[in-house]
Amino acid sequence: MNKLSLFLKASSNVLGVNERNLSFTKKYNVGKGRAVADDKYKTHNVLTKAGIPEPELLKVIKNEKDLEKFSFDSIPKSFVVKPAMGLGGSGNLLIFSKSKKNGHWIGVNGKKYTENDLKAYCLAILNNAFSLKFAKKQDIVLIQERIHIKKDLKRISYSKGLPDIRIVMYKTIPLMAMLRLPTKGSRGKANLHLGGIGVGIDLATGITTTAVTYDDVIERHPDTGMLLSGFSIPNWKEVLKIAIKAVDVVGLGFGAVDIVIDENRGPLILELNSRPGLSIQIANQEGINGRIKRVKGLKPKSLTHARKIGMNLFGGEVEDTITDVTGMQVVGFIAFANFYGRYDATVRKVKVKNDTGALYTSIDRDLAKDLGYEKALKDFDDLGLNRHFNDRKEAVALKHEASKFIRSHPEIVGLSATKSGNITSIRPKVVIGIEMEGKKVEAIANIADRSNMVYKAIIGRRDMRRSFLVDPNKLFSRYM
Amino acid sequence: MIAENLTTISTVMDIPVYAMVLLALVPTIATVVSFGRHVFGFNSFNIYVPIVTALVFLQIGLLEGLIISTLIFLITIYTRKLLINYRMHYYVRISFIYTIVCFAIFGFLVLLSLISAKTGIHLDKYLNFQPIFQIILLVTLVEEYFSTVVKEGENKVFVMFLETLAISVIGFVLISSTFFVKIIVNNIWILLLLFPLNIILARYEGLRFSELVRFKSVLFSEMRRIEENEDEKDKKKKKKNKNKKIVDSKTNSSGVSTGKFIW
To answer: Which pairing describes strands A93-98 and A79-83: parallel, antiparallel, or unpaired?
Structure first.
């Protein structure tokens, strides 16, 4: 493949401003979905109707008359003032307490506001100072409760300001996610173009990957010094669920959902966006177009199905990183494995348990027969050892005796006396090949009667040690 | 500046050359701006500002135009900064800025004449600020600058201003070169070429030049990913062939299996 066509292919996978404005916002966002997403008050109404959790709305100011009647003393001391049609978070004002001395409200940077200042700010919003340039209507002031951010998230974020999670959606399928962290430079705002940090998120696990600020890749938070990759987002599944619900209710064809995680109430929808910023591609080191190509023809049967599609298709980056660093393959507790016999070219696909509590790999007699060890089993049975022993010592003694006969056998490499419960049994050991998630190992497995068991094979520590890591969170994929 | 001895339709039709050139300037600069925006990623203040600026450059000269535009822009930005803490209506704020800009220009002109009177150097030989109407035209851009700085923030606006000046200078150079003017006046139909160019631009969905730089790392990782996928496909193909061979050899052999591990 030559360099130019490679470059062209790569650039067609990346979404640019031209294409976003021309195709994505107009072609995919037909109908009222976009109008709802662009107006936070409309979004609020739609979401409340559907019962989707969002920050509590304390007050709505629709015109100058409302503003005159309203007093900031009538609401809690910490709140957020927002224009309903604001662009890119530029009009949001965060107030987090009120000083007892002179009754001034205190903003994010320690800036003080009097009641008059706050009203002037609201007036500016009503005069469309922060709204889209061609806004036809008068803007509305929304005053929301301030969110008490989840403690886990607080740890890696700049203390003043609100970290949030942005998920780019194609219809109801989540495509790409990013954790946005405010910095000192961004004045407590999480928007990337104002100086916030974006950290890519692996959709399957909710673990952070690459971090960027102003389009440059960074490793640590400039204010807190915390490492930004490898952080696990709390309530990740819940976050995806409400994002999908919100997009479904609003009817957005392509766009982004911003979500915050409250300490008490869990994930809440902050806002929807029909023209998401494109830096999320840098934070994930992948193009949005490339991902859309992969889901374009799919028709999710349900919202859960849509979530699973996103998680299955666009996860695994974290595992890849672990694989790159350790050389080990991450597997689930339960997985599909391919078994190869030593003298047989046929392959058997079996659902196995990766049992870190067992030392040796163990396979069922039927599976062993399939793998070409029928003769070996018959030879073993001829020794008359295929029975249960109540006394372990007896079994061990017999095993030692029988080992002398077995040593010359071409297929059986040894015997083992294995205790399970109160009963000890002697089992023959053979060499087999195991392939899981594309990684192959040569293993020594003992053959036991597992016909009553759910899993026809378990893989033990000894054979996993050099090649596999078990992640209990990981689900096996049916389409492997 | 403009070539006058042209045997053209303009003389036949009794339309001044000047009018034709100025009319040609407007769509040309508009196209330059949209091309610069969608292909290169230049951000200018709409199309209006570069058109007006280029027109004024043509009338009062490049150096004078640059000085006055920069003066107006800087005063707008810094007056806004001064007024930011005072509470007032949006339009009042703009009219404040207009007033201060006009006073500043007046002061600037006074200063120039003072300098020439004191030192005896006749600055007006080099700088011509006589055509006040054109200068007023530049002053009206204050509103555009102001609304943009409110929306985009200061840092971005400085870059935008430089890019606007660059586009205006391009327009100025085009329109003041005899070569270009000759072509336009002799073949006015050439402006029709702007239509196909704009039609192509209308549906242009590729990445902008500035985005290639911005998404450099994404592009590289995408290229790596595509290459890896290709490699994997190749490997799978090879593996399939290998598997086939083993099965073949087994079926051919008589009784005793000789196949080895597949890996």
So the answer is: antiparallel
